[in-house]
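User: Could you write out the 3D structure of this protein bound to alpha-D-galactopyranose? I've included everything you need below.
Assistant: Certainly. Input first, then the structure.
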Amino acid sequence: MTNIFKDAFGASPVQSGFTPGRVNLIGEHTDYNGGMVLPTALKQGLSLSLSPRADNIVRIASDKFKGIAERDVSQSRTDDWSDYVLGAIIYANKAGFLSGGADVAIETSLPIGAGLSSSAATIVGLLKLARTEAKGAVSDADIAVLARRVENEFIGVPCGIMDQMAVAIAQPGQALALDTKSLGYDLIDLPDDYHMAVIHSGVYRQLNEGRYKERKEECDVVKAHLGLEDICLISDAKFETLAGLPDHIIRRARHCMTEHRRTIKAVNLLKNNNMRDFANLMIESHISMRDDFEITVPQLDNIVEDAVKFGALGARMTGGGFGGCIVACVKNEDLNAMNEQLFARHKDAFFVG
Ligand code: GLA
């Protein structure tokens, strides 16, 4: 890591550290509707290093891209990958962690654009390094909130808080049971005898493609109708009052309400090591994302179905939707057999971890 930095900038970095990616086990599209989420940190992630600069220049070297990108803290976004770094440095300035630009190097073991939060990890990781540099006393949760602002305000992605909290707080092997309304959370160790297999479908998508925003706007219709923000928390009786709305809007609301309830149940099942019932909820969650929230694609539906056919206790699409990864709950001893059959049938899919 230090080598990428040293090769690019001719000196050792002042700060460096690792930030994991995340995969969400259950609780999808609940994080901007007041609900629960249950992501876990991955072993794969980003090694980041940073040295502050006295001028306003931001230089970025990465093992994923050739050359050195150069930006300036007075710039706005240009819809380039370097925006994530620039946004983090600009907001580190706003928070008083830095005063000016920085040299940054990134080494990643996380597939980019796979829905495993490489962008949240970039921003959170750099904000943490800048915090250390400033000897700041800001909490990890506050770093996550600041990182979400970078995505919402600077990058223009209307995401919730799940990814930033997951990568800021959870360690690999831990799930973060997060109440996205209060930001209260519990860290739960995943059981050793099961693997939460992350498999990329081979279908790529980006949040700023617009379909994520479309779902968010559909949730806004429900919010406006009910006059409340937290549509995950509504009662059955409240849900019935949506009857006059278009069918697809009612289904979006039903997903939010049922997904939140499933996630609460899943957290308790995980705490009690009841992985069979936990995995059944993953399957229910996928069906809800497929039929009610309509964010899956046929390839993902097929991979999920086959993962269960080939030995997983349960599986579901994970992340924003329309591509990316599935996560499958599988007993350790069944993992190889599942993978063999799955990858024989799905040639574009690949094992992430
Ligand atoms: C993306 C967003 C998150 C969350 C998920 C869906 O990962 O960044 O905030 O909304 O989609 O659960």
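The pocket of alpha-D-galactopyranose is lined by residues 24, 28-29, 31-32, 159-160, 162-163, 319-320 (CB under 6 Å).
User: Perfect, thank you.
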